[in-house]
Predict the structure of BTB domain-containing protein.
Amino acid sequence: MEHDGTNLTVAEAVRSVQLLKIDGYCATAAMEALEFIKSRWNIDGHEWEIRFYPDHWHFFEDEEMICPFDDQLDHSEWVALKLILVSEPQRDKLRVNLSCRLVCPSQHLDPSQEKAVSHVFNSHSKCSPEVLLMLKHELPSSGYIVKDSLTVECTITVLGDLDTADKEPVPPPSDLRQHLGELLESQDGADVTFHVSGESLAAHKAILAARSLVFKAKFFGGMEETSSEAVVIEDMEAAVFKSMLHFIYTDMAPELDGDLEPQAAVIMAQHLLAAADRYGLNRLKLICECKLSGGIDIGTAATTLALAEQHHCSLLKAKCLEFVTESPETLDAVLATDGYAHLMATCPLVLTELLRAARGRKI
């Protein structure tokens, strides 16, 4: 293409730079090779997910590099990242680059060497190759872990469509959750008001009934609340009920995805799990169960175990038992917490399983 020597733009690009900060990095030592920490971004009208793998196994392709006497030498262990396209692509091909580097928030250390990968995303290919950022064994001495926190600077660049002249129009991604969220916020057409811990929250019976069999029975099943325009909710905080309503309308729980401090998010997840079980919101219950499973510590193990027992969360219960019986020191520390006293008072039968798990681990 001929031009007069001035700058010529043949394709536009959208770029977003964000910091992925992992606090409590020492806890990632317990994560397995396929486990990851995720962060979601919205760029160029698409929803993306960055996945951070603290222990990614990169297998050698050259068979000569594999030692026949030691199967541990067939791979190397890396700190790695991948880019996932969560939403449906708005065009046939999305040409995207992911570049990453480690940075020091105090700037006393220069950023690490930038590593990058490019990928063409479409409806059949929504996962990029991995960015191998740094060998896992080199990270502790690199200086980038500061106060048990690691910060990764991630840059996502989405190249504009190279040929739009003859393309058929592609409908934009669904904005249903946005509109329903705005409907909840505006209260337009609301036909029921919940009184929760001194606050009044308006909603729509039909939407609640469509999402929850409990609400369906309450409003359309012959119960006394069927024609009622006001319902009093006992034994629940207003913030929890409000978050549950937001999930019913949008299928999202932002309080569990980084909007709150870690400790506050754990407490909210505990309350939301109980609320989800109470109103038959199985997806929300599972989301809370997964959130709590990944954040068990000395201070929360016993209360979370009690919660799992009371609300029939088998996965969460197993994770709690595994954590508590990990070592004699961990068990002693959990037994000394107020949460353990609560566990004894509310779920005495689970103590038998706790002892059986401890005996199985011979601690």
About this structure: The two ends are 74 Å apart (CA to CA).
